[in-house]
Amino acid sequence: MSRFRSSSASRRVSLITASAATLTVVMSAAIAIYWQPARADGILPWRTDLSEKDRARVASVTATSADFSKPEAFESMQGGAATSRKLVNRDAFSQFSANLTFKQERDFKLGNALFRKLWVSSPSSTRASDGLGPLYNARACQNCHLKDGRGRPPEPGEIASSMFLRLSVPARTEAEREALASKTMMRIPEPVYGGQLQEFAIGDVPVEGHLRIEYSPVKVELNGGETVTLRKPTYTVSDLGYGPMDREAMISPRVTPQMIGLGLLEAIHPGDLIANADPEDKDGDGISGKVSWTRNPETGEPMIGRFGWKATMPTVHAQSADAFLGDIGISTPDHPHAWGDCTEAQSGCREMPHGVQADLGDTEAPDPVMELVAFYSRNLAVPKRRDVDDKEVLAGKELFNEAGCVACHRPKYVTSRKAAQKQFRFQLIWPYTDMLLHDMGEGLADGRPVGDATGNEWRTAPLWGTGLTKTVNGHTMMLHDGRARNALEAILWHGGEAQAARDAVVAMEPEERAALLRFLESL
Amino acid sequence: MKTIRTTAAAAVMALSATGAFAETKPADVIATYADIALAGYEDSLTTAQALDTAIDKLIAAPSQATLEAAREAWFAARVPYQQTEVYRFGNAIVDDWEGRVNAWPLDEGLIDYVDATSYGSESDENELYAANIIANTSLTINGETVDVAEITPDLLQNTLQEAGDVEANVATGYHAIEFLLWGQDLNGTDAGAGARPATDFDPANCTGGNCERRVQFLSSASKLLVADLEEMVANWVKGGAAREALAANGEAGALRTILTGMGSLSYGELAGERMKLGLLLHDPEEEHDCFSDNTHNSHYYDALGIRNIYHARYERVDGSVVEGPSIAALVSEADASVAEELSGKLEATHAAFTALKTRGDESEAYDQMIGEGNDAGNAVVQAAIDALVDQTRSIERAVVALDLEALEVEGSDSLDNPGAVFE
Fold first, then answer.
1. Number of neighbouring beta carbons within 10 Å of residue B386
2. Region at A89 (left for phi over 0; alpha for psi -120 to 50; beta for the rest)
3. How far apart are CA A104 and CA A379, in angstroms?
4. Which of A75, A241, A478, B335 could anchor a disulfide with A484, C-beta 3.0 to 4.6 Å?
């Protein structure tokens, strides 16, 4: 079915340290992992899940439309048959795939209840609900994934609820370099504080510290006389609970991403993503999408990273298990350590009472908790689009194409017929992403490489549902750290490979820009 | 799209063809379904108005007697409302509204004082987890200071409900009122409900502090419930938005709404989220009406609502009956054996829930039934769950018998739907 290949590669990685000094490191990776799908003949040869006739149909329907006088067929059903057609309200991101069976609806609702469930510290009378921490960012999944929508940076004086800092250090030993190259690890955790900064802790365990943000204004002049003032963030950590961080520690902020359509993104055929990649920019269009390679945590096989702001996670299940451990401090069969993100250097932390109950299972969240939450996460439906036939929306869609946004925000796919969940198979979907890593320029760079992503690279974020963030979360903040207060600011932050598209938007006439934004709001 | 409509139309035509020989017309079935909805919401409204009157009396003259009378009125208000829950599934307009009246679970520390030992004061990013609005005239939501000096229906609905985007921040509906009337149930899985004293509502002899604000909160929540139910009644009168939306689905679509509503409430909502999870976790917090220990009734009337709409027969709170042509008759004309099977399973469910209700009324509360190690109580709950799951399988067969399953991909982009994309 699939062939594994190895090749040697050496890669130049640009790193920006917290102090903003720039240095360039040559990282020689002994082995780079990747994988190629089996191929048939003819059109879309990698789509061996399809008959020849279907391959032709898929090629035709996924081709970019040149007709902007009317909506494309089925364009409003952006999540295929799973699209939610419920009334639009603040629950717009919390509905289940519309094509579930009654039994699957049950699993979704159990997953939802577990997603909302508040975990408590051990020991507790509710034995199945304890095991929180010792270090944590939240007591329930829902408390960061507010309304299953987008998080935002904290307001001054507020503790971050839907944002935290990832932490790591550069590889400094041969073993560490080897681990990164082979993707056994995607990053080397900070030796004391671990992989992320937890702002809460149970009992007498010291909290790790607090995220502090300062913004400075950056003015951007737009064609037509409008000036936009962007806010450029600087991140620091105060009240460090375990002494100073490593001299070379790298920090990178993350807000919670919207959770809709994740199962459909997982169902996109890997060949469709690989086909879009052009790491050396051989076609010379200035866009060099790169696949983020990682490993299936269960089998060790190479897999495409699809989830997370830097596409480090191959599956929704893996992402969920990672969040259980790092964000809430709950162990699962995937990550059986009850102490969560406590490192050996955090004395006492690993010795705190845990929530494992032998009669219930080996971990704090034994089966079927993990899979129910993953099922829930895969089946949060994409809402139906609004106003697809509006003239201004259609004009905006044309401008989105013309400006070159579609080079990375790739509009549509037909999912694999071999997708694990039946409801996600062979669906025409419109996520507006290529799921690849792109250099977004110095302005957005976090200087913190993870896996294949350099400090300048980010995964193209899906745009479906974007227009409903205000309805669901009461704000319109975007990008990995929510620095953009609206879609226009997010566009203006684009640099690197996206510089030309960004410049095209700056050069637009005001009414054109308005149409472009109207199109985004209709997603 | 065209093909799907044709399939749906074919289903209706097939039904109409059957109708030429039978007595039941789909249009009459759909009309009865809407009539029962109207009657159910009207009953919910009148009982909520009675609750509001009882609350006014409690506020005017706080005593154990007026508090008990208000609690009884709350119990009575739950009876018709729970029977309408089946309408939430499939009717987008009801689902859109439901969170205002029946949101659950709720973090009661948002509203009033709680017992710190059992509730926990664990620091949390839900900054409103223990905000105690009754004791505070201002609070911080999303980093902004909000003036809550005056507690009004508008404040509850538009500011406090789901404040900070946290769904457990519930400030409106039956369960907010329930918490105010009963207080926390501090008995764990032991016997007993919440035991708030009447003096909590008595500014002259105030216990619990801030009695005037507690009265404001209770009164506001009660007025809001009445207004919300008025809105839903208006949606189901002739020409109302819910009836119009149902009609817009076409006959086949409306029939499917009836059956999927029955299936969704049976399996995912009631058997799953509301019952199985509590049994899995043995957590007394996993109880739908947790302050009043009314969960056995809440579940019983949910299940009864499913049976009502299948047989198109609803007994109103005044004892009168609304009935008419049923989807049961339609299924029977299409496949008598499926109709009989589903009818039998609904009766089995009714028996299982009657046993659960009897146990709740006579020997132990629902939170005790789901307690760890209570094998007999667990078994009663499990039997009710099993019956719901079993009846859902027959509901699926009824969907097939009426040739409605083609609608599953209605409006979908499924490329498996021949010709849908490339015609």
1. 14
2. beta
3. 9
4. A478
Q: What separation in angstroms does the CA of A331 have from each of A22, A326, A364?
A: 38, 9, 5
Chain B positions touching A473 (Cβ under 8 A) are 165
Instruction: Find which of B125, B169, B392, B400 to mutate to test the A interface (most A CBs within 10 Å of its CB).
Output: B125
B162 interaction partners in chain A (CB closer than 8 Å):
90, 147
In tens, the pLDDT along B276-300 reads 988 888 877 778 888 999 999 999 9
Tell me if A331 sits within 8 A of A352, measured CB to CB.
Answer: no
Q: Within its chain, how far is the Cα of B378 from the centroid?
A: 23
Instruction: For chain A, say whether B136 makes contact (Cβ under 8 Å).
Output: no
Residue % of chain B over a pLDDT of 90: 72
Report chain A residues whose CB lies below 8 A from the CB of B286. Answer: 113
Mean pLDDT throughout A184-189? 95
| A151 contact partners, CB below 8 Å, separation of at least 6 | A144, A145, A161, A162, A163, A255, A256, A257, A482
- Token readout for B316 is 């109103």
The half-sphere exposure of B176 on its side-chain side, counting CA atoms within 13 A, is 35
Using DSSP, state whether B322 is helix, strand or coil.
Answer: strand
Q: How many CA atoms lie within 13 A of B90 on its CB side?
A: 27
What are all long-range contacts of B134-142, with beta carbons under 8 Å and residues at least 24 apart? B134/B209, B134/B210, B134/B213, B134/B214, B134/B217, B135/B209, B135/B210, B135/B213, B140/A158, B142/A155, B142/A158, B142/A474
The one-character DSSP state at A523 is -
Q: Which of A261, A248, A278, A259 is nearest to A98 (CA)?
A: A261
Question: What CA–CA distance (Å, rounded) separates A225 from A119?
Answer: 52
Quick check: bond before A217 cis, omega within 30? no
Q: Are A160 and B125 a contacting pair at CB < 8 A?
A: yes
Reported pTM: 0.90
Q: Quick check: B348 contacting A, CB < 8 Å?
A: no
Q: What is the length of chain A?
A: 523
Whether residue B80 has pLDDT greater than 70 = yes
**Contact: B96, A57; criterion CB under 8 Å:** no
Residue B127 Cα, gap to closest chain A Cα (Å): 9
Cβ of B96 within 8 Å of Cβ of A126? The answer is no
Cα A94 from Cα A84, distance rounded (Å):
9
- Inter-chain CB proximity B96 and A86 less than 8 Å: yes
User: Hey, are the CB atoms on A137 and B264 less than 8 Å from each other?
Assistant: no
CA B295: distance to chain centroid? Answer: 12
Which residue from A98, A103, A427 is facing B267, i.e. has the nearest CB? A103
Q: ipTM of the predicted structure?
A: 0.86
Least confident of A26-30, A319-323, B333-337: A26-30
Closest approach of B317 to chain A, Cα-based (Å): 31
Cα B371 to Cα B243, B277, B278, B286, B388: the distances in Å are 42, 12, 9, 10, 21
Decide if A62 contacts A38 (C-beta within 8 A): no
Partner-chain contact B268 A87, CB within 8 Å: no
The CB density around residue B406, as the number of other CB atoms within 10 Å, is 18
Q: What angle do CA A519, A225, A479 make, to 5 degrees?
A: 45
For B:247-266, CB contacts with A below 8 A are 263-264, 266
Q: Which helix (H) or strand (E) holds A32?
A: strand A22-37
Give the ranges where B276-326 is alpha helix by DSSP (H). 277-281, 295-311
CB A243 within 8 A of CB A192: yes
- Interface residue of A83, A97, A102 to substitute, partner B, most B CBs within 10 Å: A102
Q: Does residue A330 sit in helix, strand or coil? A: coil
Q: How far apart are CA A98 and CA A82, in angstroms?
A: 5
- Least CB-CB distance to B414: which of A80, A118, A121? A80
